[in-house]
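Long-time lurker, finally posting.

We've been working with Acetyltransferase (Lacticaseibacillus yichunensis) and I want a structural starting point before designing mutants. I don't trust myself to interpret raw outputs, so I'm hoping someone here can both generate the structure tokens and explain anything notable. Sequence follows.
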Amino acid sequence: MTETEYDRMTAGKLYYSPDKDLVARRAATRKLVTAYNQTDDGAGQKALLDQLIDCPSHDAYIEPTIRMDYAKNIHIGKQFYANYDCIFLDVAPITIGDNVMFAPRVGVYTAGHPISYDVRERDLEYGHPITIGSHVWVGGDVTICPGVTIGSDVVIGAGSVVTHDIPDHVIAVGNPARVLRKIDDTTRATWAAEEAAYHRETGR
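Top reply, 14 upvotes:
Generated this for you. Predicted structure of Acetyltransferase:
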């Protein structure tokens, strides 16, 4: 069977971005994304999001506005939430675990362009997959670059540019993002005390 440009794209190979099939797929996604961004009907938004992304639990919520290339290459676990103006360039798979939160203007960019301009100017592109574990909070205006894996139980500080893999149980910040410190038992105890105080003070 002949390998299509879509096959090449999702496999991380060089592909021709103006390919007619790819253009049609992007146009179809753009129509759904535009409809999603323009509706304030909750049930309607949910139905559109179910058409766009792969979320077996059907409980993801993404605040408008959003941007996506193909959408079907976005695989999301349970209880995902993204705030305003997030961008998903999903020419390669984007895989996100359970209980992940995005602040506003997070960019998840699997797309890449050849360093050599003569290749780049012939509309050849590539993509490398991005994987994000479970129990992750990504701060505002964070950029996640092609090929990155972010572990579970991670916080990425606002404004960070994630160019390399981030391990489990850490806070990472900066450009490029680097591990600031671990999330350990002391951290958990501190926040457990804060939660206990909240319940005492509110009676909830």
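Before you design anything, note these points.
The first strand starts at residue 15 and ends at 16.
The CA atoms of residues 26 and 70 lie 6 Å apart.
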